[in-house]
Amino acid sequence: MLSLLAALVLPLAAQQAPQPVKNPGIFTYAIQGDVDSLDPDWAFDSISQEIQFQVYETLIFFRGSAIDEFDPLLATSVPTQDNGFLSDDGLTYAFPLRKGVRFHDGTPMTPEDVKYSLLRFMLLDRAGGPSHLLLNAILGVQTAAGEDGKPDPDVYRAAADAVDIEAGALVIRLKRPYPALLSILAQYAPVVSKKWIVARGGWDGRLETWAAHFNPAKDATPLYDQENGTGPFKLARWDKPGRELVLERNEGYWRQPAPLDYVVFQSVDDPGTRELMLQTGDADSIMLERQFLAQVASMPGTTIIDDLPLLEVHDFFAMTFHINATANPYVGSGQLDGNGIPPDFFSDIDVRRAFAYSFDNDAYLRDGYRSKGQPARGPIPAGVFGYNQLQPVYSRDPQRAENYFRKAFGGRLWDTGFRFTLAYMEGAADRELACQIMKADVESLNPRFHVDVRGLDWPAWLADFTAGRLPMVNARWQLDYPDPAASVFPMLDGEGFFAKAQGYDNPRVDRLIAQAVVEPVQRSRRLMYYDLQQIAYSDIPQIYTVDTFFFQVNRSWVRGWYYNPFLQYGYFYPVYKEES
């Protein structure tokens, strides 16, 4: 992985005569999808996090393109045993805090803000959110809720004891060594202003008021559509109907102000429109599917940066085991009568096997990715520790698919047929292609089978999926830190993002995931992840498709952009524009 990161930039597009820079102080990014929330402790999607990387700051940050090296940011040192800020037993981390930092409203950052920020990140604990990352790393628990689903006071007290301020430093005390802590802190729990949040009706950090702010609705937090960070850019406006968000340079930034005046994110579903924006210089960078790459590869004034390592479970199908059928337009009649599906449709493993053997993964790799990649072998991406290159995979086998469809529901499904909606994020042409291939392959087996493909805008997709309303979706999952736990937990653990929304629950899997996280012997740990991949193959909670590479499409006048797998779409503080 690191050797790939060492060779980042391979310009593929032929460079012609230098072109004058269009809108020199404005960087416009034509993106897929929409911003879901600006609250860094609520949002858990890559587009929202892309905004947060520009607006908020963490204690430490990734060193350029490295995934396991860090620089201090709001802390003045990265804890190591050599500098004395990491204890010999690996349980206590101290982060000396930087002085002279101000929030965007001009108020100074205090040590109390930093402590509050970590506690808020852990204890807000919205369903399907990111809180578990630090709860697990620091306290060894996956949720701040008790068995009754209500906030557990013991978790609050444990968190308040584990995170403290001592002699001007933030100190974190772990229950057990957790080497991935620094990777998590480099992305999550950015520092927010306690005073600013409290003044707007947000949580004040006390146990007595915690329950009223626990697991909040998306728009119920002060930071949903406002921000007050310390980062190099601040919010200028968020035009939700117009699907545009504009950031402006923070002139009071504690470092040298950014070269760019503005960074503009425009949500554009149509890939042809994004390509045209790139060609005319109205976009400086665009998100694009590989199937369209050839159309911009020879475009004058563009640069394609390819073969970048992608730490992502890519374009997989997730099936909901217990569908919420109440007033649900995605399940037709809601019964096994040929005009819909029952709530337990995908609970039948023969149905899941049939869909797995229906999908033509070779066609998807060829048509969607120009054969750039390989079949995915499970929930652990290629290049990540624990990946088993010998793990069997499902491939299209119409006869096997028919056999399993004939077995499903005691033999009734084949003669009755079904209809349901398969959803993807609107504007993601590669995910739409995967859905269309699945539709064609399944429907070719039986004229009674009907799969309706529908694109949903990102907030609607996310809300309906986490509510258990979508029977089947095509999705992606970017790892939160460079470890297999960052993919197997969300995909397979009963409390993980996808598994929980799908209703997949295998106690043996949960135990194995918990054991693998703390297993000190690497060979034993690897075998545990091999076991988890085999269980994923046997249980089929998801159907995995491809492992591929990331690529970035920029105008050639873009300077300072670099790739990091965890800052996938870019960190814009060093970016500027200059004639190519």
Describe the structure in your own words.
With 580 residues, the protein is of the alpha+beta class. The protein has three domains: 15-30 and 232-307 and 549-577, D-Maltodextrin-Binding Protein, domain 2, CATH 3.40.190; 46-220, Alpha-Beta Complex (Dipeptide-binding Protein, domain 1), CATH 3.90.76; 319-547, Dipeptide-binding Protein, Domain 3 (Dipeptide-binding Protein, domain 3). The protein is 31% helix and 17% strand. The chain is built from 20 helices and 21 strands. A seven-stranded mixed beta sheet has the order 7-8-9-1-10-19-11, with helices on both faces. Strand 14 (418-425), helix 15 (429-443) and strand 15 form a beta-alpha-beta unit. The radius of gyration is 24 Å and the shape is globular. The model is unreliable at 1-16 (pLDDT under 50).
Strand and helix map with partners:
Layout lengths: L1 H5 L19 E6 L14 H10 L4 E3 L7 E3 L19 E5 L14 H14 L7 H8 L13 H10 E4 L2 E5 L7 H5 L8 H6 L7 H4 L22 E7 L4 E6 L12 E6 L3 H10 L4 E2 L7 H4 L4 E7 L3 E8 L29 H10 L2 H9 L4 E2 L22 H10 L4 H5 L1 E8 L3 H15 L5 E8 L1 H9 L5 E7 L6 H8 L4 H6 L4 H12 L3 H18 L2 E2 L2 E2 L2 E6 L2 E2 L16 E2 L3
Parallel strand pairs: 1-9, 1-10, 14-15, 14-16
Antiparallel strand pairs: 2-3, 4-6, 5-6, 7-8, 8-9, 10-19, 11-19, 12-16, 12-17, 13-18, 20-21
Helix pairs in contact: 3-4, 11-13, 12-15, 17-19, 19-20
